[in-house]
Amino acid sequence: MSDNDTAQTLLQLRTELARSQQQVADMAAAHEDFLRAVSHDLRAPLRHFTSYGTLVRETLGDLPAAVVQGAEVQEALGFLATMDQSARRMGLMIDALQALARAGKAPVRWQPVPLADAVAQARAALASAQAGRDAQWRIAPDLPTLNADPELLQELLGQLLGNALKFTRNNAQPALISVQAVAADAPGQVGFTVTDNGAGFDPARAGQLFGVFQRLHRETEFDGVGAGLALCRVIAQRHGGAITATAGVGAGCTVRVQWPAALPGAAAGGWGGG
Length: 274
Hints:
The chain is built from eight helices and seven strands. It is an alpha+beta fold and 274 residues long. The strands form two sheets. It has a five-stranded mixed β-sheet. It is flat and about 95 Å long.
C-alpha cells in the first residue's frame, strides 16, 4: 500500500470516527430532551389533572346533602376517584422512567463492595415495609465482594429485597427470604441469589418479567407499576453482569445475579456498610 493510500485510509477512518462521535452526542442530547420532557412537560398536565379533579370533588361536596347523596353525584365521585388513582399511577410510571434513564446514564463509580454490608444496608432501608411482618432472613456468611457502584448496587438490592417482602405479604406462613452465594457463570464473576417463598409467577410468562411496566400479578393483589426488575436488569448490564429469575405459581421466586468480582486484595475504601 502506497503512502497516499495509507493517508486516504486514515482520513476515512477519522471521518467515520467523527461521524460516530457525533451520533453518540446526538443520542445523548436526545436522551437529555427525553428526561426534560419526562420530568417537566409530562408532569405539568398531570398536576392539572389531579388539581382540577380535587376542585370538582369540592364543588360537588358543596351541593345540598340530598343532591350529594344522589346516585348521579355518587357515580361522578366514583369516576373522580378512578381518575385520581390513574393519575397517581401515571406519576409513579414517570418516576420509574426517570429512574431507568438515570441508571442507564449515570457514571459507574467502580469500587469493591462487600455484598453482606450492601444487603444489610438494603434491609435497614426496608424496615418500614417489614414492620409488623413475621419475616425470617437467611443471609449466607460467605457472600462475596463485588466490583460495583455502591449506589447502583443499593438500588438493585433494594428492588430485589423489596420484591421478596412484597410478594410474601399474603403468605399464610412466615416470609422466608434468603441471600446466598452461588457458582459464577464465567471467570472474573461471582454469583448470588435472592430467594423467597412468596406468590411466585407462571414460568411460561418469565419472558415478560424484566420488561418495563410488565406485571405478572393483578394490581389489587400487589402494588407497583412493574418497572423494578427492568431497573435491576439495566444496573446489572451496566456492570457487565446478568440477572435471571425462576419461579412457580405459589412456589416462591429465585432471582439469580451474576456480577464482576472485586480484584483480589482490593480494599473497600469509601464504602459505608449498614
